[in-house]
Design a protein that fits this description.
The protein is of the alpha+beta class and 377 residues long. The protein contains 14 helices and 14 strands.
Length: 377
């Protein structure tokens, strides 16, 4: 109740009105909110505009956006059409990884709700038993109410989407403030295959442009792969850099249209304002072109060939490898009592995930790479 309790001065959330909001009684609807181990009820107040006479609830987004973080962060839930979800539940969805899905969260909530409901039911039956022991007339008490059913995992994902929408400005500010110095443009069919309903079969490819921080700067559906049909996307991206007064990018990695013997490549022609832009073929697609010229993905030696090809191009940073070896040696000596191991024996104990997590990789250089690839072929 921002006006009734905190005495905050609020304005009308309607776009064409600037009237002041005053209290107009209590909101008639009471929301049921899903919590970690149960449900609770939440009420709010009615606010009325003195100018347009429009009434809104105190928990509407137009009111919450006007509150300072001191007050807005106290709002406990994300509201949907019928039910509501506490922020403590939504927080569990922010770290979704493999094995930590919405279905897993739903199962965990069901277990915690069942345990809390059983405790309350036992307490209720215990009070009934004490009451009957003190009464001279034997009566019968109603059984405990059934446990309310939990919403589905799809509803949890919907709530998570609503929570993201409330923080959309923050996400945009982060991406806008870190444009990145290296861009990568790639196309995929995986997104278009998930389109359903009217949007089905409306696009064949989705082209994404990201930076070295893993942030997607822009995503555009197209009818074909390649530079055709991407002029508007490139113009919009260059305009964003120009309005933000960010220097033009000088390097972009692509999956095709990187070379042209007759002059400027198709990708460079898209970004005409960035005259110093260097277009290079992404290393993964370079490796795929080598593999396509040798064998197919169904060949038994294809995985081994791709691993060896990656070793021909990349090498692990020597400083990171040395620090990882020292840390692994300390771990083996402290936890497992394995002393006196050579560097080769310690390296054999390092898993592939540990190499990927703790060590950076860099290219070997053109001459060494060409020699190693020739030997591999």
């Amino acid at each position: 109740m921002p006006h009734r309790i905190w005495r905050l001065q609020l304005t009308c959330p309607q776009p064409s009105c600037t009237g002041s909001m005053v209290k107009a009684g209590l909101y008639r609807t009471i929301r049921r909110v899903l919590d970690i181990d149960g449900w609770y009820l939440m009420a709010t107040e009615y606010l009325e505009c003195l100018r347009c006479k429009k009434k809104v609830g105190g928990w509407s987004q137009g009111i919450i956006r006007q509150l300072a973080p001191t007050y807005s962060r106290q709002f406990p839930a994300v509201l949907t059409y019928k039910l509501s979800c506490d922020h403590r539940v939504v927080t569990q969805l922010k770290s979704r990884t493999l094995g930590n899905s919405a279905t897993q969260l739903c199962n965990t909530l069901r277990e915690q709700h069942s345990d809390a409901w059983m405790r309350r039911a036992i307490q209720y039956l215990g009070v009934c038993e004490q009451f009957l022991a003190l009464c001279s007339v034997r009566g019968q008490f109603p059984p405990p109410p059934t446990m309310p059913t939990l919403p589905s995992p799809i509803w949890l994902l919907t709530v998570y989407g609503y929570d993201i929408m409330t923080r959309l400005d923050e996400y945009k500010a982060r991406i806008t403030s870190t444009f990145g110095s290296i861009l990568k443009m790639d196309s995929t069919k995986k997104v278009t295959k998930k389109l359903a309903g009217i949007a089905s079969d409306t696009a064949a490819w989705v082209t994404n442009v990201g930076n070295e921080y893993g942030q997607v700067l822009i995503s555009v559906p197209t009818c074909s792969e390649g530079a055709e049909g991407l002029s508007s996307m490139a113009a919009g991206l260059m305009r964003r850099y120009r309005l933000a007064e960010v220097p033009p990018r000088q390097l972009i990695y692509v999956d095709r249209d990187c070379c042209n013997r007759d002059g400027v490549s198709k990708t460079a022609a898209l970004f005409q304002e960035w005259g110093q832009l260097v277009v290079r073929l992404d290393i993964w697609h370079l490796m795929r072109r080598f593999a396509a010229g040798v064998t197919t993905e169904s060949h038994e030696l294809y995985p081994a060939f791709m691993r060896q090809l990656s070793l021909c191009i990349f090498e692990v940073d020597s400083g990171d490898a040395r620090r990882l070896t020292e840390a692994k040696r300390s771990q083996l000596e402290g936890k497992h009592g394995m002393v006196g191991l050579t560097d080769a024996e310690v390296i054999q104990k390092i898993t592939r995930e540990e190499w990927r997590l703790h060590c950076r990789r860099r290219t070997r250089g053109a001459e060494e790479t060409a020699l190693l690839i020739q030997e591999l072929l």
